[in-house]
Amino acid sequence: MTSGCKKTVAIIGGGVAGMVAARHLCDPSWGMSPTLFELSDSLGGTWVYTEKTGIDEYGLPIHSSMYKNLRTNLPKEVMMFPDFPHTKQGVSYMSNREILQYLLDYAQHFNIKKCVKFRHYVKDISPYGSQWKIVVIDLKANEERTYIFDAVILANGHNSVPTYPKIEGIQYFRGQTLHSHNYREPDGFRNQSTLLIGAGPSGLDMTFDLSTVSDHVVLSHHTDYASKVGFPPHVVLKPDVERILRDGSVLFKDGSTMEFDVIVYCTGYEYTYPFLSESCGIKSDHKYVTPLYKRLININHPTMAVLGILRHTPIFYLSDLQVRYFLQTLMRPEVLPSKTEMPKSSRRRRLP
User: Fold this and answer.
1) Quick one: angle between helices 16-25 and 96-109, nearest 10?
2) In this predicted model, what pLDDT tens digit does every residue of 129-188 receive, in sequence order?
3) What percent of the chain has pLDDT over 70?
4) Distance between CA atoms of 2 and 311, rounded to whole angstroms?
5) Which of 36, 81, 113, 103 is CA-nearest to residue 320?
6) Burial 193-226 (b: 16+ CB within 10 A, else e)
7) What are the residue ranges of CATH 3.50.50.60 in the chain?
8) 180 exposed, middle or buried (CB, 10 Å; 0-12, 13-18, 19+)?
9) What pLDDT score was predicted for residue 350?
10) 170-265 placed in CATH 3.50.50.60
11) Beta partners for residue 235, in sequence order
12) If you ran DSSP here, which 8-state letter would residue 269 be given?
């Protein structure tokens, strides 16, 4: 793919990170030509709520993990892009619908959609000389197409492929099990005895959500903060699960046992890039993506960036900074250290 003398850049994914990449690349001052490949028919990524779970009409996994009653656990002041403030005043913690509307307003303001190819499934990415070959499937047309780009930005998100814990004896459990990825709303759990495993943001929020429809909600965790959250009195906190007994009851590490109708795994997600060929030089597991310079740039192929994998950071501001830095390196490759020096610069520095 060529566009005169402009560098062509592929963006994989139309969530927060992909949208901010498109916003800057659509700015003519960068002198680049972007194409954003989005699997669904909408921008917004995981902020797009759908009642559907499992597989979509094209036989592909549903990407979004959004549940109906989610409200942000961060104030809107850190959930916005630096050049596009929220207009709503007086409320800091917003609903998922309000965040999605903010993202759609952002896309319209910066005319992002002009570079988006909706319903395009990225099948394979591989180096092609100094460029990149990307094979995609146009799902609506059911056609496979190949493109060539000068650079690639990976922004496919990391809240869609569940991580499951290994629980001894889980085959003996007689009730329903599901991952928080497939949780949508509490009504289906009314009066069900429910065990949630994991006290990350989703685990805490879903505990509150389910406590509105059931008097028997248990959160299993190993944190020092869950007891300080202030759950309703009927929510029970328990330590980690030891194992499932043969009678289907759950044995906790404190020696107590309880019976449940449902187990919900709130145990996080994998970093996954199934479309990357081995020749891209990127390895990932559920906690790490390597080798990256500044947790961003593919050391083996510096014209590839991986956005938004830092944890516990404001993703809106982070993605904006990462995109602008990466585009600077495309304009001036000499600002990057050599391939042999980048790994040294990327090692974790220990505080004295």
Assistant:
1) 10
2) 999 999 999 999 999 999 999 999 999 999 999 999 999 999 999 999 999 999 999 999
3) 97
4) 35
5) 81
6) bbbbbbbeebbbbbbbbbbebbebbbbbbeeeeb
7) 7-160+269-346, 170-265
8) buried
9) 39
10) yes
11) 217
12) B
CB 43 within 8 A of CB 107: yes
CA 42-56-160 angle, to 5 degrees, is: 70
How far, in Å, CA of 11 to CA of 308, rounded? Answer: 13
What CATH number was assigned to the domain covering residues 7-160+269-346?
Answer: 3.50.50.60
pLDDT tens per residue across span 44-85 = 999 999 999 999 999 999 999 999 999 998 999 999 999 999
Cβ atoms 45, 160 nearer than 8 A? no
Radius of gyration of the chain (CA): 22
Tokens of 223: 């944190």
Q: Characterize the bridge pairing of strands 217-220 and 194-197.
A: parallel
Q: pLDDT at position 347, please?
A: 64
CA distance 206 to 258: 20
d(CA 19, CA 108): 11
pLDDT of residue 1 exceeding 90: no
Which residues lie closer than 8 Å to 302 by C-beta, 6 or more apart?
A: 293, 329, 333, 336, 339, 342
Which burial class, exposed, middle or buried, applies to 229 when counting CB atoms under 10 A from its CB (0-12, 13-18, 19+)? middle
Residues listed for the chain = 352
Which pLDDT does position 285 carry in this prediction?
A: 79
